[in-house]
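ok so for the tutorial part 2 we go from a plain amino acid sequence to predicted structure tokens. step 1 is just haveing the sequence, like this:
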Amino acid sequence: MMELIRNVARSMLSRTAAGRRLVLCYSLRSYLEEMGWFRSVEEGLPVDRDGRCLPWFTYPAIFFLNGRIRSDMAVFEYGSGNSTLWWSQQVSRVVSYEHDRDWYNSLKERIPSNVEYHYCALVYGGEYCKAILGHSHRFHIIVIDGRDRVNCARNSLGALRDDGVIIWDNSDQDKYLEGFAYLMQRGFRRLDFEGLGAINNCQWRTSIFYRDANCLGI
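step 2 — the prediction. this is what the tokens look like for a chain of 218 residues:
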């Protein structure tokens, strides 16, 4: 009986443009539920449907990364959060820098042993963007998702392995064009993943900058 009622309701709604939009929105509910989008909005954190941590990237970017990340990889993050906890479960070593002291203090007690977690005050062009220069270890993946991103990109290449990639979130923003050009001029290509992600009700873009023979097999 309930299925009959739903079918009749869909049929009636589909007779108008507004009704068709409502039907389409309802049909998207299962996708959003599966992705954990509703739960992420409720909790205000990027999580999947079971409450497990996700990076605050677009869902298409996360789909692409799943299955390509290896457990022997090392990751450097500019900007921390649920992504830090997610990376810690995927790779052997994570180094993460955070500029927001309150956020740093709220997260540090949850940081596992394979994560080296640092607070660094933000001064544009200062120690924050140069933090990666103090690490002799080279990284498979460098995530640019904090502040002063163009300068972070400029300082990152010496710490990136020959097969390494750079993940740049919010790459739909024109204020980062100088940083994108810097990477492209040095032989990187760009793969964009645009769409919806956790919490937000609008789409944005996460990009991967890569070279030949890279660690993600692009």
